[in-house]
Design a protein that fits this description.
This protein is of the alpha/beta class. It has helices at residues 3-6, 16-27, 69-74, 135-145, 158-169, 185-202, 249-253, 303-317, 387-396, 402-406; strands spanning 9-12, 34-38, 77-81, 85-89, 94-97, 102-104, 107-110, 114-116, 129-131, 150-154, 173-178, 206-209, 213-218, 222-227, 232-234, 237-240, 244-246, 258-259, 266-269, 280-282, 287-291, 296-298, 329-334, 337-343, 352-356, 364-369, 375-381. Strands 3-2-1-7-20 form a five-stranded parallel beta sheet. A five-stranded parallel beta sheet has the order 9-16-10-11-12, covered by helices on one side. A five-stranded antiparallel beta sheet has the order 23-24-27-26-25.
Length: 415
């Protein structure tokens, strides 16, 4: 056995993807060392509860933990929390940690995730301006909601809408400011996005679409949001949700191939999630992999993708034949609305939206079809059990009849 064979598998990022990879390594029979390094001090956790149960004040952040400390001890997984990897040396097969130590690896997984995009306007650092990404941020926000403040949410994406719905359910007055024409326009298009916006209006959320933020008012804490045109919207608390960006800098500094924001961003890998560096793989929000089913690169910023790519990367590191073809999937809960979405519609793609069921009823399915009538993506709202069939339609690559797809008298499985 060589020295390299005795080195551990090192995972950079004690994230959902990183922890899932560590667990998969053990279940797949890897008996060697595993070192999991993460910059947060919390045990690895899932993020969805942070913007759902925790934000509603129903759950504590501990419910989001994947495993307790005893599990990591029992599985001989070395956790180095509160530590940040500052450099990767692919030639030497080692990483440098911010405490000055170096860790050699047999295989390396980069699961550094993503970080929130910060808004760069006057007053952005005022107390009362919140972001929602970490367990600590979620707890701070849910504590603040308890006082029923006037809340302004900047951004009508998923995090913005989940934050708004939680605030309304906690009894807060809520206004959402969004520069686009409606909610979720970038991810669902205007037609479906407006359905979500109207649903929120029915629950008392106010919207300012086509409106940008010029700054935050206040001295000791935020008191208002100055929007385009000069108007100031009173606010006791602000939640900023304007997207995330992948943490690719560590890989880029090591000479590992990454894509820029202009062409999709992320660490570039093949279907096996292996990067351009020998024995280095990537998983989670940060990976931009060649999707074997879609025939193009894909990067996904959701919970299911972190779990799926963590598992696939672990298997690939163990030498298994991997072609990661999972269909992107995500879900949301807002008020009494539950939604699941599967598929991927590339930005700039021409598509047709087909609705199955009446949105006014509160339960329906939406499909996105390309110009050749192939299903690119599908989404159900309060129509449980539809997701598997939606994924089958996408995976089949077959043309569909939009009229039959919309006809609720035709079983979805028969379309």
């Amino acid at each position: 056995m060589t020295d390299a064979d005795q080195q551990p598998i090192v995972i950079v990022g004690a994230s959902l993807a990183g922890a899932t990879a560590a667990e998969t390594l053990r279940t797949e029979g890897w008996s060697g060392g595993i070192v999991l390094i993460g910059s947060e001090t919390s045990l690895p956790y899932e993020r969805p509860p942070l913007s759902k149960g925790v934000l509603l004040g129903k759950d504590q952040t501990e419910v989001a933990q994947l495993h307790d400390q005893q599990w990591y001890d029992d599985n001989s997984i070395e956790l180095r929390l509160g530590k940040t990897v500052t450099a990767i040396d692919p030639k030497a097969h080692s990483v440098t940690v911010d405490d000055g130590s170096q860790v050699s690896y047999r295989k390396l997984l980069i699961a550094t995730g993503s970080r929130v995009r910060r808004i760069d306007v006057p007053g952005a650092d005022l107390p009362g301006v919140h972001y929602l990404r970490t367990a600590e941020e979620s707890q701070a926000l849910t504590d603040a909601y308890a006082a029923k403040p006037r809340v302004v949410v900047v951004g009508a994406g998923w995090i913005g809408l989940e934050s708004a719905s939680a605030a309304r359910e906690r009894g807060c007055e809520v206004t959402v400011v969004e520069p686009q024409s409606t909610a979720l326009a970038a991810v669902l298009g205007e037609e479906i996005g407006e359905l979500f916006a109207e649903f929120h209006r029915q629950h008392g959320v106010q919207f300012r679409f086509g409106t940008g933020v010029e700054g935050f008012e206040g001295t000791d804490k935020v008191t208002g949001v100055r929007v385009s045109g000069g108007e100031v919207i009173p606010a006791d608390l602000v939640v900023v949700g304007v997207g995330v960006q992948p943490n690719i800098e560590l890989a880029a500094d090591a000479g590992i191939e990454v894509a820029t924001r202009e062409n999709g961003s992320g660490i570039v890998t093949g279907p096996d999630l292996r990067t351009s560096a020998e024995d280095v793989y990537a998983a989670g929000d940060v990976v931009r992999w060649d999707h074997p089913l879609f025939g193009r690169p894909v990067r996904v910023e959701h919970w299911q993708n972190a779990k799926d790519t963590g598992k696939s990367a672990a298997k690939a590191m163990l030498g298994q034949d991997v072609a990661h073809d999972a269909i992107p999937f995500f879900f949301t809960d807002q008020f009494d609305l539950g939604m699941e979405y599967a598929g991927d519609v590339p930005r700039g793609t021409s598509y047709q939206v087909v609705l199955r069921g009446d949105p006014k009823s509160g339960a329906y399915v939406a499909f996105w079809l390309d110009d050749d009538r192939h299903v690119l993506a599908g989404m159900h709202v309060n129509t449980w059990g539809a997701t598997d069939t939606i994924q089958e339609l996408i995976r089949s690559g077959k043309q569909v009849d939009p009229a039959r797809l919309a006809d609720t008298s035709v079983e979805l499985s028969e379309v």
